[in-house]
């Protein structure tokens, strides 16, 4: 029979191996293509060219976190918590994306103007978060018996990781939608986001209802978020707009 010390050592070795495997998986260098990108100039050109594909690069998730099905839908399993990033930075652009949560209370979002580089000990990067919550989130996250504000689940905008902003419709430091338009589990939602010169305006299911201004970092990566529950994305399109006058301290560092 093994001694207590031997058993403890065996458990420690097994735990160490599990941690190392997890770290190696999250540092795995993989990517995929999803969504399209074009430019405003191309849209109005007399001889427009085709759409380009958006390439996504792993930051701190796993290869089996993401998959594109036969219908072109990107499925995110939600674990581990982390992000993938666009292979290039974007400054001024229009983002169109359709999304749906597949579990009650699901949590996710897209980061714009991000450094795509979470600080040590954290899972998520800095940037402007465009939040995507399933409607039951407020019912499943009561605090002292009280539900959080319903504004949580209808498309909030806020800076994270030291990125500062001025909200159009303040709820603390966040900006809340002025009309509740998001749809629940299994139903597709449509976000159209116009991001220009540190200002973002969000349309939820066909109406502009939220905005935020003076975002301190106004050029960076797009990040898709995995945060604990399955979410699906489709028809992601980026239209790049002409650049602004942007100083170096307003641009996220370039990554390899």
Q: Calculate Rg over CA atoms.
A: 20 Å
CATH architecture: Sandwich
Q: How would you state the average pLDDT, rounded?
A: 91
Termini, distance in Å?
Answer: 52 Å
Poorly predicted ranges (pLDDT <50, ≥5 residues)?
5-25
- Portion of residues in beta strands equals 35-45%
Written description of the protein model:
- The protein has a single domain, classed as Exo-inulinase, domain 1 (Jelly Rolls, Sandwich), CATH 2.60.120.560.
- The protein has 256 residues and is mainly beta.
- Helix content is 12%, strand content 38%.
- The longest helix has 23 residues, at 4-26.
- It has helices spanning 4-26, 40-43, 137-140, and strands at residues 31-39, 52-58, 66-68, 74-76, 82-86, 93-101, 107-114, 127-133, 157-160, 166-167, 170-171, 174-175, 189-196, 199-204, 207-213, 221-226, 231-240.
- It starts with a helix and ends in a 16-residue tail after the last strand.
- It has a 15-stranded mixed sheet that branches.
């Amino acid at each position: 029979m093994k001694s207590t010390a031997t058993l403890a050592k065996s458990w420690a070795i097994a735990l160490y191996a599990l941690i190392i495997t997890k770290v190696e998986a999250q540092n795995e260098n993989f990517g995929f293509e999803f969504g399209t990108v074009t430019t405003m100039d191309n849209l109005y050109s007399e001889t427009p060219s085709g759409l380009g594909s958006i390439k996504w690069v792993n930051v701190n998730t796993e290869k089996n976190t993401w998959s594109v099905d036969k219908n072109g839908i990107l499925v995110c399993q939600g674990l581990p918590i982390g992000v993938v990033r666009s292979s290039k930075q974007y400054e001024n652009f229009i983002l169109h994306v359709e999304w749906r949560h597949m579990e009650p209370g699901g949590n996710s979002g897209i980061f714009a103007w991000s450094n795509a580089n979470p600080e040590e000990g954290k899972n998520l990067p800095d940037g402007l978060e465009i939040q995507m919550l399933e409607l039951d989130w407020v019912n499943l996250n009561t605090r002292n018996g009280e539900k959080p504000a319903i504004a949580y689940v209808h498309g909030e905008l806020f800076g994270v990781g030291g990125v500062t902003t001025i909200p159009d419709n303040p709820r603390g430091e966040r900006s809340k939608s002025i009309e509740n338009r998001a749809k629940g589990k299994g139903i597709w939602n449509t976000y159209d986001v116009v991001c220009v010169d540190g200002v973002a305006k969000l349309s939820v299911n066909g109406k502009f209802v939220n905005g935020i201004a003076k975002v301190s970092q106004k050029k960076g990566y797009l990040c898709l978020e995995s945060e604990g529950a399955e979410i699906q994305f489709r028809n992601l399109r980026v239209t790049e707009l002409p650049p602004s006058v942007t100083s170096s301290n307003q641009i996220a560092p370039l990554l390899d």
